[in-house]
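Quick start: what a row looks like.
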Amino acid sequence: MSPPNSPRVQAFFDEATNTVSYVVMDPNSKACAIVDSVLDFDYASGHTDTRSADAIVAYVKAHGLDVDWLLESHVHADHLSAAPYLQQQVGGKIGIGDQITVVQDTFGKVFNAGTEFQRDGSQFDRLFKEGDRFEIGGLSGRVMHTPGHTPACLTYVIEDAAFVGDTMFMPDFGTARCDFPGGSAENLYKSIQKILTLPDATRIFVGHDYKAPGREEFAWETTVAEQRALNVHVGAGKSIEDFVSMRNARDASLGMPRLIVPSIQVNMRAGKMPAPEDDGNVYLKVPVNRLGGPK
């Protein structure tokens, strides 16, 4: 039986990017938060679409919800955030980890963003640090800084639910890559161990699912106990040495995510596009030989 203040969670799965977005609801009020939203993007045409975000908007409006927060677990490299669009449609404050400034500094240089691109996190409404607390109606949330995949990754612990972003996936799929600039397999292992100190029954909601071999359905909810016992990369007491060796070898075989170039440029700006150029149009840059080549 769930605790009386256990949040209600509605997932929205975007199969094009294997991303899971969440509406997290206070069971005793109309307050909610939206975690890791998706703006649809066709790379070949450069065309954006709001189908995924509109499904969330429709859900929020159909249930008469009040959006307190638009939470980002990190600067995603595999999809664009719809946070600004959702903010226009249903409100809410956009939050991310305060180490976003490290990511902005790194990728501001990669994309030669220029001095007009502020690297102080000011594009976001709230910069969270380890231990910060926030409310969703009567729900109490707290922030865990869980770097490794990126320097700015956060886990949002909301009562008995933890939203871990890309830190780890379902137990049969393991953990996130650590080879982006600022990533660290050692830090990821330590972050996961911190998450696994939460109570066994804590519900873990992952940011992606890629349907591990042998599994027929997509899945995104597990528990601390299941992760501790069964996670194929860190479960059953695997050592940091074994994890780092495995993770580094695995990452060396991976190509870059399909949408990394547009995603990072947009997401480091809190989901906003770069400013229009002199002709009134918006452009995204492709840095040549800066983000690794094919494996």
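That is the whole record. The chain has one domain: 8-266. The helical segments are 51-62, 83-90, 100-110, 185-195, 224-230, 240-252, 260-267.
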